Amino acid sequence: MIVTILDIIISGLLLGGIYAVTAVGLSLQYGVARVLNIAHGEFIMLGAFITFTLYTRLGIDPLISFVICGPVVFAVGFLLYRTLFTRLRNTSPTAGAFEGNSMLACFGLLFIIQNLAILIWGADMKGYTYLAFSVDFWGARFAANRLVTLGFAIAICLVFYLFLANTRMGKAIRAAAQDPETAGLMGVRINRVLALCFGFGALMAGLGGALISISYKIQPTMGLEYTMIALIVIVLGGLGSIPGSFLGGLVLGLVGSIVTHIEPGLSLVAYYVIFMLLLLIRPKGILGK
Amino acid sequence: MPILEGKGVSRYFGGLAAVSNVDFQAEAGEVLGLIGPNGAGKTTLFNLISAAVAPRSGSIRFKGKEITGLKPYQICRMGLARTFQTVKVFGNMPVYDNVLLGAFFGGGGHVSPADAREAAEGALEFVGLTQAAPTPAKDLTLANQKRVEVARALATRPDVLLLDEMMEGLNATEVNRAMDLVRMIHDKGITVVMIEHVMKAIMSVCGRIMVLHHGAKIAEGTPQEISTNRTVIEVYFGERVDA
Amino acid sequence: MGLKKTKSKKIVALGLGLLFLVPTAAAPWYAPVYTVILLTSILMYMTISVSWALFSGPTGYISLASAAFFGAGIYTAAIVGKALPLPLMIVAGALVSACLALLVGALTLRLKGIYFVMFTFGLVELLLHFILWWEVTMSGTTGRVVPPAGNATVFYAMLIILVILILTVLMIRRSRYGLALLSIGENEEAAAHAGVHVTALKVSIYAVSALFMGAAGAAMATRWTYIDPRIAFNPLISFVPVLMAIFGGIRPIYGPIIGAAIFTYLEEFLITRFPYYYMLIFGIIMVVAILYMPDGLVGLTQRIWKKMARRNHADT
């Protein structure tokens, strides 16, 4: 009995860790750069497939290929912001128009990235085995790859938290998140910061995807579901709150694990039920402003 | 019984009290002025009355009925209309449509198209904008846009009209015309509560004045009483006042 | 007020409409089957995009749930299709979709627009998962069969749906509700203070738009005959009306119609030449259009028209 509970909790934390990493990325993009990136899941998918290709073609260890996968996805996000979204910012008459237009642009990106992936990798499911042996813990057996993924997810979030709290760039990002105009007046190079935020958001998505590929099967159409989940997580955590997204991710992961244990196939429905309850009772979320 | 009154009304933003335990009342047919330095909570008070925001505590009664907790459209249909400090006209729509909207929806009860058109045309004529009817509202001068807002509010057949800094940004001629408009509205029997920084307007048009400072009411009385009130003078001495 | 100009514009529009409508309506009599099928697709896309623009156009609330409402119509047809004749089946599909929209609207439209976008984005996938689970777990089936209807029948069903839709849109546009919708898009707070019950109006119009999407779905189901959740709930359908509004412009009623026509031909063209690339190309077109054509093609032509008109009149 305890074993089952432990299993559910660890699976939940693992899932939650992945959700948290990806949601923090989306929170950066929406909360700071003000882009509702509904193509977020596609960046996750890119991270997953880059890791997959590096491992199956070049034999590079997935945990090591972080250093390739991360920067690549970051660069894609950063460049997209510098070109596409900066132009939208300059041509949109109001902040509301920019949010709408950038969301629609992401919609287009969704189709572009997803179809490029289908062209490159084909539409079927893929996977690889890595660290697939079991580890014994208090009488329960866990797959090593899942434990490692959980550890890395926590590590990524920790590193990011330290970055936000202690570095100059981190403080600039926090300032821009609170009040972009004043931050700009205080000398923060807003355009650079926003592009970096978008890039970091993509980075987190890419790393999340890499983690996913270690434990689960992947396919080019996987993105949509992860985007949905990330959206629910940032509402749960509170729009604009990065620590909230982290917390919300863990909570949702635990919920997902519990629901999957009772009735597999209903986890997404359960997430949406939580979404609906939030909308009815507390749209602000847990830590929302 | 006052047509509009509030008791113990408070509203906080974070830890800061924007409006703190304010009592107020407006008698039917009067012109009540609401003044105070910037940030005193005047617009917040209007927002509380029109239900744009909800109060933390206190009660507001309009025509004897409790209106806290109602939605803005309900309060409008009951007969309380307002204008906004930052002009909120429907820019891409013609002036006529701006006002027609108020005529259709603000009246309370079912309004026939003919009645609505009549009310809209009447309101436009009242504020002197009949010529501008087909023009998109965004193409008008600021002074005229404010008039569109007033016309839209009047088309809802209000008993009480809240005017938020109607004279802001107007030159001397426009201020005089606006003052005349307020007098005309008063002559129709509509109760007016107006926030203003333009002292000349307030002093000459209002029958009574209420002063807010840091969210609290610090004085109330006739223009004569207010202009000689020590507390009010002290509050304004240290701050810039638009004359 | 330029009343004469608007009247003559309306007569021209009416004339053009009839000019297209009559030969189109007679198509099954003289055109090859392939053309009739293509026309049915065009009508379907037009219905979806005009319905979408009815709500999202004036209010500015971008709904990404069109696929959900369309799919709900399809699936309703799959469930009741054997028991009901075609017209009732279509009505059933319409009502189910409308109820879904009422639910979604009541939940999200009283909050800021961002929640609406987020909620509608995931709705298709949610319904897909839920119905898939339900069918597998409760009904034991994965697909259902809809009694087929002839090509001509489906064509006329779609045509009637589209005509009713256009009449409805025109009626709403001219009424006080059309005025209120526009005002909500311009400044929601001011509209509320002018006496408009903003949430009720938004939810109602959203339900009306879903009504027609559901009807279209139910009608089209008879052409595909075999339905499973994946076929019914296809995210591409959420993408399409947005793309068409971008082509055609969102505001005038003929914007989405022109956009739908362009899109369908484009799709036919691309599917046959570049079967593997066409969705990619659409994504690129969408991004380019958002960047460079914020008002759509119709807006673009309007701007050009205005520029030319200004040159002909003296400066005021």
Structure description:
The complex is a heterotrimer of chains A (289), B (243) and C (316). Chain A is an all-alpha fold and 289 residues long. Helix content of chain A is 76%, strand content 3%. A two-stranded antiparallel ribbon of chain A has the order 1-2. The radius of gyration of chain A is 19 Å and the shape is globular. The model of chain A has no long low-confidence stretch (mean pLDDT 88). Chain B has nine helices and ten strands. In chain B, a hairpin with a 2-residue loop joins strand 1 (4-13) and strand 2. In chain B, the strands form two sheets. Chain B has a six-stranded mixed β-sheet, with helices on both faces. In chain B, strands 2-1-4-5 form a four-stranded antiparallel β-sheet, with helices on one face. Chain B starts with a strand and ends in a 6-residue tail after the last helix. In chain B, 37% of the residues lie in helices and 24% in strands. By secondary structure, chain C is mostly helical. Chain C has a domain at 31-234. Chain C has a two-stranded antiparallel sheet. At the A-C interface, helix 3, helix 4, helix 9 and helix 11 of A face helix 6, helix 12 and helix 14 of C.
Element-level helix/strand string of chain C: HHHHHHEHHHHEHHHHH
Helical segment tally of chain B? 9
CATH architecture of one domain in chain B: 3-Layer(aba) Sandwich
Oligomer: heterotrimer
**Which class do the helix and strand fractions of chain B yield?**
alpha/beta
- CATH classification class of one domain in chain B: Alpha Beta
Largest interface: A-C, 40 and 39 residues
What is the compact description of this entry?
The complex is a heterotrimer of chains A (289), B (243) and C (316). Chain A is mainly α and 289 residues long. Helix content of chain A is 76%, strand content 3%.
Topology record:
The complex is a heterotrimer of chains A (289), B (243) and C (316).
Chain A: H1 2-32, H2 40-58, H3 66-91, H4 95-121, E1 134-137, E2 140-143, H5 144-166, H6 168-178, H7 180-185, H8 190-215, H9 223-237, H10 242-262, H11 267-281
Helix pairs in contact in A: 1-5, 1-8, 1-9, 1-10, 2-3, 2-4, 2-8, 2-9, 3-4, 3-8, 5-6, 5-8, 6-8, 9-10, 9-11, 10-11
Chain B: E1 4-13, E2 16-26, E3 31-35, H1 42-49, E4 57-62, E5 65-66, H2 72-78, E6 80-82, H3 95-105, H4 113-127, H5 142-155, E7 160-164, H6 172-187, E8 191-195, H7 199-205, E9 208-213, E10 216-221, H8 223-227, H9 230-237
Parallel strand pairs in B: 3-8, 3-9, 6-7, 7-8
Antiparallel strand pairs in B: 1-2, 1-4, 4-5, 9-10
Chain C: H1 3-25, H2 27-30, H3 33-59, H4 66-80, H5 86-108, H6 113-139, E1 144-145, H7 151-174, H8 176-186, H9 188-193, H10 198-224, E2 226-227, H11 229-232, H12 236-248, H13 254-273, H14 278-292, H15 296-312
Antiparallel strand pairs in C: 1-2
